[in-house]
Design a protein that fits this description.
Blueprint (H helix, E strand, L loop, with lengths): L2 H17 L4 H9 L3 H20 L29 E2 L2 E10 L2 E8 L4 E7 L8 H15 L9 E7 L2 E7 L3 E3 H4 L7 H20 L2 E2 L8 E4 L4 E3 L6 E2 L7 H10 L20 H5 L5 H17 L9 H10 L5 H4 L9 H5 L1
Helix pairs in contact: 1-2, 1-3, 6-9
Amino acid sequence: MIPENWQEIENLYDALVKQGTACKPCLLRELCGGDEDLGRQIESLFEADACVQGFLETPALEIAAPWLTDRELESPTGPLASGEQIGPYRIVEPLGQGGMGIVYRARDTRLDRDVALKLLPERSEQDPQVLERFKREARAVSALNHPNICTLYDIGEYHGQPFLVLELLEGQSLRDVLDSGPMAITELLDVALQIAGALEAAHAKGIVHRDIKPANIFVNTAGQVKVLDFGLAKLLSEPERVGADAAAAAGSSTLATISVMGRAMGTASYMSPEQARGDDVDARSDLFSLAVVLYQLATGSRPFEGETPAITVEAILGSDPVPPRQRNPAVSPQLAPPFDQG
């Protein structure tokens, strides 16, 4: 999506939204006048919008559950009752539920410790994208051993529903921390170093997180940071594929990356420009997202905001954020010299 075309793309996109999705395909052909490239770019906005709406600002609870949304979960067995046994794990209580599953506090009866058990939704084995996220999180987190990354203990299946067993965290996400306003600079620096350490460990293993945002970063009661949710992770050994080959790979191969060319994956406000364009990404994309998070922690505001994901993407691709010291004079000039000098 190039800046010269953006206004035309945005105008056509808004016109299609106003008409409703039922007549979008025919209107798309009519409004684009046969321009297939323009049509693909507008279609990518609808795909990104649908994707982002599913992940944007989801509530983080007491454990590693950033996938959760406000939709109700339908389960073949219903919510598991306290005392119910899943292998060696005895259910204690539900901690949250949504479109990506129910998360329970459970007791590992073998090791006599509490864990977070994330049970994926009914029929998740029939949804390639849900299964791919599950496998990616399991593969990525199991490859990492770092104090600032949430630990994966086990995976399994219960009545056809895959589940993850994760480290149970007590504390709050950075999303919840931000409800109190900007973070003190000394605390922000400590948090920044811990997140950077987690990302350095992931990148050293060839893993790009691709969804760094406040809801996916947890601070426990001891002040230790934990990076969560590697469900959108990309292995650098797995290059992006282009066109029809990418779409086929995303639906059929466990080795293909979830995102394909022209489809943005992640959360709009925290995407790097490469993510927003649907391009291939590397470790630098996570660093951009981390900078966005740190800007928000320092100022209480996101550097790129819009009423819709499409407008937010436009801001990321074509505008500069407000200098952080204009929003919070307590921010040291040494923390943001490019803003204050430019």
